[in-house]
Design brief:
The chain is α/β, with parallel strands linked by helices and about 400 residues long. The protein has three domains: about 1-170, MoaB/Mog-like domain (Molybdenum Cofactor Biosythetic Enzyme, Chain A), CATH 3.40.980; about 175-255, Alpha-Beta Plaits; about 265-410, CinA-like (Maf protein, Alpha-Beta Complex). The protein is about 40% helix and about 25% strand. It is built from 15 helices and 17 strands. A six-stranded mixed beta sheet has the order 2-1-3-8-7-6, sandwiched between helices. Strands 14-13-15-16-17 form a five-stranded mixed beta sheet, with helices on both faces. Strand 16 (about 370-375) and strand 17 form a beta hairpin. Helix 3 (about 45-60) packs across helix 4 (about 75-85) and helix 10 (about 260-270) packs parallel to helix 15 (about 390-410). The longest helix is centred in the middle third of the chain and has 19 residues, at about 230-245. It is elongated.
Amino acid sequence: MRACLISVGTELLMGEIVNTNAAWLSSHLNDLGVDVLYHHTVGDNPKRLKEVLQESLQDCDIIITTGGLGPTQDDMTKEIVCDVMDDELVMNDDWLKLLHDRYEQRGRRMTENNFKQALLPTRAQILWNDRGTAPGFILADPEGLKKICCLPGPPREMTWLFEEKATPLLFSDVEDVLVSRIVRTFGIGESTLETELMDLVDNQTDPTIATYAKTGECTLRIASKRKDREEAQKAVDDMIQIVKDRIGKYIYSCDDEELVQVVAGELMKRGISISSAESCTGGMFASALIDIPGISEVFDRSLVTYSNRAKMEELGVKNETLEKYGAVSEEVALEMAEGIRRVSGSDIGISVTGVAGPDGGTEEKPVGLVFIGFAYGDKKLCRKTFWNTRSRNTNRQYAVLNMLDVIRQNI
């Protein structure tokens, strides 16, 4: 079964609202075994919406629209869908009564334009919306071969209506089952990752392998679509094992977990306490850890020692070390890590110092250069990293990921 998503609303095109509906629907449709061929975003323009609907019906079995079902004049989705599917709008007395009752319960008067929301196609299956004033509907073409499912735009209404009402009506006869898993890696670039797995990607039929990249990380989505769920699950698991055999040292999760979730989980499971000393990241590492529920079991403190004076007073970094090597150096990072461990009494002391940018870099110490100090038991080490970007925030995010990866690799 092939589907297309059409998001309606000029506010989406202007960037006033982030289109979370399309991503949410795509994810759920994939889980149902439905192939999503296209995403379209159309403004409140009847002519363009009609053109996109007609074009999409040529390739797709199902079109799902979101938005344009409200009471205002620019809400035209129903009218255009009826035009394309050769139907007409009529007053639905049941929904009109429901609207009247809702407004009375809230002590409000129903305005004239709200009547528009009770106009619905004659052939449609109505999706009763318990969370809003605009019902959804499913309308098939006269031959019953193609369907358009219209859902309201507000995510709270759309997600509920899709799961509770639309899914049983649209996808009860989908035979194939899609099973997928997300494998997350750190420390290997997308081009290197693809090279390592090139033969698997080139020869893939089922399972399929798709690679995605974001700051400092690469993700693999391994999926299998079969008629039997257990068979699809086994195919995915077998492929993951092949991938592990090739790039296992870079894999930190096979269950779509964030790196901070994995590291925090290991610290809590092993009962290893940790404190951090941050310079260029300014508390981002601590903030990432604190987002994890239960982390107070092991996370003691973080000190933002941004200035040289703070590094000396709070952590005991030696003045001569700072003068000889500079604040952005392996030597200072190690003294910071040892200092925070000593001050806090934690099992692990981890530190970071670097040039976040966009200015302040030199030929010897360019923007993006970061040193991460780590002290745990008898182990003391420093990781030097360089992320070639002038984005201050990206450099800091990459530093935090490296801090987490140092912990993961050494506990």
